[in-house]
Amino acid sequence: MPEAQLHLLVANDLSELSRIYEFIDQTAETCDLPDDTRRSIALVIEELFSNTVSYGYPSRTKDEIRITIECARDGVTIHLLDNAQTFDISEAPVLDLTNDNIDDMKVGGLGLFLVHQISRDIRHERTENGNSITIELDIERS
Amino acid sequence: MADTPHLTIEDEFQDGFRIIRPAGKLETLTAKAFEAHLREAAGADSNSLLIDMTGVDYVTSFGLRSLLIITKQIAPGGRKLILFGVNPSVHEVLRISGFLKILTVADSREAALELVSQDPQKAG
Predict the structure, then answer these.
(1) Taking every annotated instance into account, which residue ranges of this chain make up the domain Histidine kinase/HSP90-like ATPase (chain A) (predicted)?
(2) Is there a contact between A117 and B96 (Cβ–Cβ < 8 Å)?
(3) Which end of chain A, N or C, is less surrounded by CB atoms within 10 Å?
């Protein structure tokens, strides 16, 4: 598998998801990734990006989020760098689907739960202005 | 029919039952339109809702949340969401999220129709 590192800079706006999908498809092609891995990358990045955009900017400040995908022989590393409100995602949220009050189950909670389920490792570092998140995924070869 | 950039939704009818057919990605940008479509169908019909997932290749937490909201909305009437044609990668997301415990996933269209025909309230 080709080793590569690809970057994308996006605005903190959900409309950027189309560009993010294109970027992931392009990365999967460059790195010759299996379909399941491509979908896992998309899920991780979308959940984290949507979470940051939805909850990380209470004052609706404009920001640019830098997304990096690094393909190596034994796995894929995803890196997200933002200037959003600090939020440590390295702890897995507890999910209670039987809770009758759906509003109590925030979208972010379910998304982070999924990210934790499919990732090999999740690291969060607080930067001077925001968050640096590193996710490692296994490559699922059939 | 509701369309967004990454999802189209069509309805078809078989044996008097509506079958909702989303195609594309069930994600952040499309989940609300999908949820609105399901809510409208839940209001128009009195039976469980059938969803043909054959055309859905990607589901995120926003899509799952829409499925959960409608499931809980129709549950008091003894109705369910019945999914069929779920592809393996979507099935895996349903499994790891715990949603297989709260949604009904049928093995085939026929099995889904059989389940809906056993509803306490059948389609008129």
Answers:
(1) 11-135
(2) yes
(3) C
